[in-house]
Amino acid sequence: MGLFFRKSSKQTGKLKSLLKLAISRVAIARRPRLARKSIASGDVCQLLALGQIDRAIHRAEQVIKEDNMLDALSNVEAYCKCLIQKSSQLDKPQECSGEIREAAAGVIFAAKWCSDLPELQLTRDILADKFGNEFAAQAKEGTALVDPTLVWKLSGDTADMEMKKKVTKAIAAENNISVDFS
């Protein structure tokens, strides 16, 4: 019986290490996304200044994608921090609070979409082992306790024309450019 608890504690220790690595890698993953968002915003601004509204709206899709991914990375980072802080409870997953279960489900779901965070793949396996295959399967699908906003940010459709127009208008307003979509 003591061997079981030791194995679980080792597994939890490995999980904490992986989560810490994932947090540090989130900071690294943000940099190119921020750069791409900035470049795409600049492109939208230039296209608007040239009067090419249709192309500017199309380019706004990249701004939306990068912004969604940046928000998702922030959520993943928060989930990782939550799991690290409350890691002592992970040795008894059936007694975990809803907050921990939501964080675990979010990390499991995000592992599929965040290829620039390879630690999440290993973390997903450990969490699936701790919480069970049924929980893991539901989390991978984006159901169970996964935040719907995270699901939308990572896998949602950014092609919504109203959102593109809204982002284009916001960029135009920041740069004192008037835009008429009619």
TrEMBL record:
This is Regulator of Vps4 activity in the MVB pathway protein. Belongs to the IST1 family. It comes from Lolium multiflorum (Italian ryegrass). One of its GO terms (biological process) is protein transport. Gene3D superfamilies: Vacuolar protein sorting-associated protein Ist1. Pfam families: Ist1. PANTHER family: IST1 FAMILY MEMBER, PTHR12161:SF74.
